[in-house]
Amino acid sequence: MCRVDEFADYLLKERQYSKHTVIAYVVDVRQFCEFCKIGGDDVELAKITIKDVRAWLAMEMRAKRGGESGLSAASGKRKLSSLRAFFRFLEKKGVVENNPVENLTGPKVNKRLPVFVREDVMGDVLEEMEGVGGFSGLRDRLIILLIYETGVRRSELLGLRVRDFDFHRSCLRVLGKGDKEREIPMLRELAQEVQVYLEMREELVGGQHDIFFVTDKGRPIYGQFVYRLVRKVLADDVSLERRSPHVLRHTFATHLLNNGASIEGIKDLLGHASVGTTQVYAHNTVERMKKIFNQAHPRA
Fold first, then answer.
1. Using CA atoms, how far apart are residues 53 and 50, in angstroms rounded to an integer?
2. Do residues 271 and 180 make contact, with C-beta atoms less than 8 angstroms apart?
3. Which domain holds residue 21?
4. CA-CA to 229 of 20 to 30 Å: which in 82, 154, 180, 299?
């Protein structure tokens, strides 16, 4: 239908998009083709105009399927990105001469500043976790410490293997979005805790598998495990709007920036494709400086 399978293959193999992104894009394109009543006919695709795209997007923004409320501006913008990528693919294949989505601007998205944990609060969280013994206590603290000190995504954390830790060079190898590998430095404290954890993990797992983080039964941990742990350890911080592994990633970047790190350096550590994505952390620093200014300046 609608060359969707070819499109998915193109995104995965040529553009190296993540599987999650490809699935989202494919769902959007299928919905659009259903709305326009397009089967597998290239002639029908070539007749699509900007009016068709606007009509579909307006319908999606008004109401979701099942009578739910309409899409958010961010979701609408994502759907537009899906169609833009699809029609670029069709242009490349010679199916369409012009991309009807190319110059169409999406709904305006109000950017939210990244939520992060204050440095003093983060220090208290890690200090409290030091008192919990045993394998599970060490593992849980190491999960929090690793996200905070390296800024890895939850998916990257779940994919870590024993061989990804290079103690000789004090760095960690991470496989990020688009299967792009990057190296992140490890602080001495983190490297020491990893080594202690590996000894306890070996007793539990042996040579059964190479996944780094495991449950008390030696099985690989999963997404909800990490999410619940982060929510638990950040539960007492009433200042947070959200409590998730990504908040710790935001905390990593914000604390680096507040202590003098460059945006370009933070971009590389986080594995962002563009420095524009990383710029959002600068807004937090600006807001912080405004607050200090308003509190301290005699004429504020």
1. 5
2. yes
3. 4-93
4. 180
List the structure tokens of 110.
Answer: 């109000």
Q: Cα 15–246–17 angle (5° rounding)? A: 5
- Selected catalytic residue, list 79, 249, 250, 255: 249
Output the CA–CA distances (angstroms, integers) from residue 155 to 114, 159, 176, 226, in the order listed. 19, 6, 8, 10
Question: What pLDDT does residue 66 have?
Answer: 47
Tally of structural domains, the chain: 2
Q: pTM value?
A: 0.64
For position 215, what pLDDT does the model report? 96
Look at residue 102 and tell me if it is in a domain: no
Residues 93 and 96: their CA atoms lie apart, in Å, by 8
| Given the residues 10, 25, 197, 281, the one annotated as active site | 281
Q: Is 113 among the domain residues?
A: no
pLDDT of residue 67: 47
CATH of the domain at 219: 1.10.443.10
Exactly one of 77, 177, 182, 231 is catalytic; which is it? 177
Would you state the pLDDT for residue 147?
Answer: 95
250 is an active site residue: no
H helix runs in 130-279, sequence order: 134-150, 154-158, 188-205, 223-233, 245-258, 263-270, 275-278
Secondary-structure breakdown of the chain: helix, strand, coil percentages, each rounded to the nearest 5: 60, 5, 35
Stretches in the chain below the pLDDT threshold 50: 65-67
